[in-house]
Design brief:
- The protein has 320 residues and is mostly helical.
- Helix 1 packs across helix 9, helix 3 packs across helix 11 and helix 4 packs antiparallel against helix 9.
């Protein structure tokens, strides 16, 4: 799942006061911080895996197999936390809410995510997706009446400017000419995730993050599977190279289920203010891993725009 951002239920939890254990009271706090540091590494790595997979599989097929892995991993997480009986304890409203989550954050997001990565470098894509919290806040302000502080408005402006620099490769006058299939698909993915987050905030009160994300994954897997049937004549056995299988397993298990559980542990024990700071590292690791693993170039505009966007997102994520 997500991929580079926490699931909607996590965003819901982050928006509410979260009790946490004081640092001095937890002898294993260093272990939690280590896991939280690994989360943006895993989410940054999803762009590398997605880039490799998108060269071999159509978007719907890639998303479907990814979330088969993710659903199985989340089922295991639910079994060890709440028990599988919790699967049947949703109200009709909650069930419809998780269907909306599956349609937006799983189905639409993954189609657009893999489409973008089929034509864009992983690092460039990870910097565009950094706009997730910015777009979410803007939609919430426009449609739900949320108010933004001056600091957050400054962060919005800086993040947008930074991504503008990245997309235009430093030539700010060429925005329209620079928007191709990949950029538009990734902006669409950002909007899909923003809707996913806000739907979760409004409709899923009372559900645990694991249960809400599991049901969203179930719905999303179903929708992706139905669309993937169309791709079957064009998908061949030789498309499933060892690299593709490793990438799909990484996306589903580590990039979705494991990272999600660790991130929620941070929210629960440290609170939102400390935990969301780690989100700022996702595009950093996306760019770094793209350079190290895929050999993607590090241009001056990518580094400068990326730094500006990350600083803007840091301001946006500040809890006021």
């Amino acid at each position: 799942m997500t991929t580079a951002s926490p699931p909607a239920a996590l965003a819901t939890a982050a928006a509410a006061p979260v009790p946490h254990t004081p640092a001095a009271a937890s002898p294993k706090l260093w272990s939690l911080y280590l896991r939280l540091t690994c989360v943006p590494v895993l989410w940054g790595g999803t762009f590398i895996a997605g880039r490799v997979i998108s060269a071999h599989l159509p978007p719907a097929t890639a998303g479907f197999i990814r979330f088969v892995f993710a659903t199985l991993a989340l089922l295991a997480a639910l079994h060890f936390t709440e028990g599988l009986r919790a699967l049947t304890q949703l109200t009709r409203r909650q069930l419809l809410g998780t269907m909306a989550l599956g349609a937006t954050g799983i189905f639409a997001y993954n189609l657009l995510f893999f489409t973008a990565l089929s034509v864009l470098p992983a690092g460039r894509t990870s910097l565009i997706i950094a706009l997730n919290p910015v777009v979410t806040l803007l939609i919430a302000a426009a449609l739900l009446g949320d108010r933004l502080s001056a600091t957050r408005w400054l962060g919005v402006a800086l993040a947008l400017l930074g991504v503008w620099v990245v997309v235009t490769r430093g030539d700010l006058s060429q925005l329209v000419q620079s928007l191709g299939k990949g950029e538009l698909a990734m902006f669409g993915a950002v909007c899909a995730w923003a809707v996913y987050t806000l739907v979760g905030r409004k409709l899923l009160q009372g559900l645990s993050p694991v249960l809400a994300t599991l049901w969203a994954a179930i719905w999303g897997t179903l929708f992706l599977g139905l669309l993937a049937l169309r791709d079957m004549p064009h998908v061949h056995a030789d498309s499933f190279t060892p690299e593709v299988w490793v990438g799909l397993a990484f996306l589903g298990v580590l990039g979705t289920a494991v990272a999600f559980v660790w991130y929620y542990e941070g929210l629960r024990q440290l609170g939102a203010a400390r935990t969301v700071v780690f989100n700022n590292l996702v595009p950093v690791f996306g760019v770094l891993l793209g350079w190290l693993i895929l050999g993607e170039p590090l241009s001056a505009s990518l580094l400068a725009g990326g730094a500006l966007a990350i600083f803007g997102v840091f301001l946006v994520n500040r809890v006021k």
